[in-house]
Amino acid sequence: MARPRRFDERQVLDTARERFWSGGYAATRMEDIAEATGLGKGSLYGAFGGKQELFHRVFDDYCGSVVDAVSRQLRGNDADAFERLSAHVHAVAAATAADTAHRGCLLAKGAAELAEHDETVAKRARTAIEALQKLLEDDIAACQRNGDIAADADPGKLAALVLAVLRGIEALGKAGASEETLTDIARTALAVLPRPAH
Amino acid sequence: MARPRRFDERQVLDTARERFWSGGYAATRMEDIAEATGLGKGSLYGAFGGKQELFHRVFDDYCGSVVDAVSRQLRGNDADAFERLSAHVHAVAAATAADTAHRGCLLAKGAAELAEHDETVAKRARTAIEALQKLLEDDIAACQRNGDIAADADPGKLAALVLAVLRGIEALGKAGASEETLTDIARTALAVLPRPAH
DNA sequence: TCAGTTCTTGACTGGTTCGTCCATAACACT
DNA sequence: AGTGTTATGGACGAACCAGTCAAGAACTGA
What residue stretch is flagged as signal peptide (chains A, B) (predicted)? Predict the structure, then answer.
C-alpha cells in the first residue's frame, strides 16, 4: 500500500558499522554514512531515528555477531574442547595482528568511548562479555571432562583469565604490539593453563 | 620584562587530562577546558597551540606518569620481586574495580579512539607499552633469580602474558565486570605462573 | 615613571553537523 | 486510473565549535 524501501537495512547497518568502527562515534558524521550508503539523510533518519539510535543498533548487532562467532568456534564435543580453545585463542591473536589499521574490536572501542556516559552501550557490552565468559567456561569444563585441564581448577576463574588475556591481546594489538608478541602471548597463555597431574 | 602567566601549566594539563579522560578527545570542547581552568581561550591557544597539541601533551604526560608509577611499584631487590609483582597485579585489579565511572585508563582510551588516525598517539602508546613490558620482564627475571618463578621460562614471554592480563583486566572493568571477577583474574593469573620444580 | 614585552579576555569568524521539513516519487489496493 | 500511504533526497535551520584577533592589563628593567 505504501512506497517500499529501496535500500537493504542490513546493508546500511553494515556500512554504518564500518564507519563507526573506523572513526569512532563522535568523529563519524551522519552525512558520511548517508554518502557511503547512497541514502539521503531523510531516509536515514526516517529508518533509524538518529545518530545515537543508529549506533545502538550497530553496536547491538556487532555484539551479537561476536558472541555468535565465538559460540561457533567453541561449541562441540568434549574430545576436541582443548583444540577448539587453542584454535580460538590463536585466532584472536592472528586476527588482531592482521588488523594493521589497529581498529581493534568495536565492542572494546565503543565501550571505551561511550560506556561511561551511555548506559545502553554499557549494558550491552556487559552482557556480551558475560556471554563470552560463559562460552569459555563451558569449553574449559569440557576440557576438564576430557582430562585436558586439571579437574580441581575452577573453570569459571580460568575462563575469566582467558577472557582477560584475549581482551588484553586486543588492547596490545591496538597499541602496536608485533604479531610475534601476540602469538607468543597466545601460546604462553595456553601453556600455563593447569594440566592434570598424571 | 613581560607580563607573567597567571596560571600553572601543570594544573591546566591536569584539568585537561580530566576532561579528555572522561569525555574522550572528540567529545571534549576546548571551551570546556577553558571554563574548567578559568582561562580564556586565547591563553589556552597561546600556551598550548591547539586541541590536538594539547591532547598530545596530556597523553604524553599521562603515559610517562603511568610508566613511572609502575616503575616505582616494580623496582627493588630480588627477594621481594614476586611480592611486588603480586601487589602490582592486585593493585591494577583493585584500581579498575574502584573506577566505578568505568573511564578505564587514558592510555587505552586514547589509543582506542585515536591510534588509528594519529601516528603521534600511536607511537607514544607503543613506547609506553614497551616500557611497561620491560619493567615486568625485569621483575620476572628477578623472581627467577630468587627462585620464585621457573628458571627455564622465558621472562619476556611471561611479561607479555602478564601485560596482556593487566590490559585485559582494564578492558573487562570498562565493560562492567565485578570486583570479584577482576580480583579472581589477578589471583588466577599469579597462580598459573610457572613455579620452579623442587 | 615609562617603554617594551608578553599575557588575558571574550567577542567574532568560518566552517561544520545534527536533525527537520517538504515537495515529489513509488507502490498497493480498489 | 485514482487514492492513500510511506520512502526519498536535498535544501534549510539552528546550534556548536576550533581557532583568531584586537584592545587592554600586568609586569620588568631602565
Answer: none
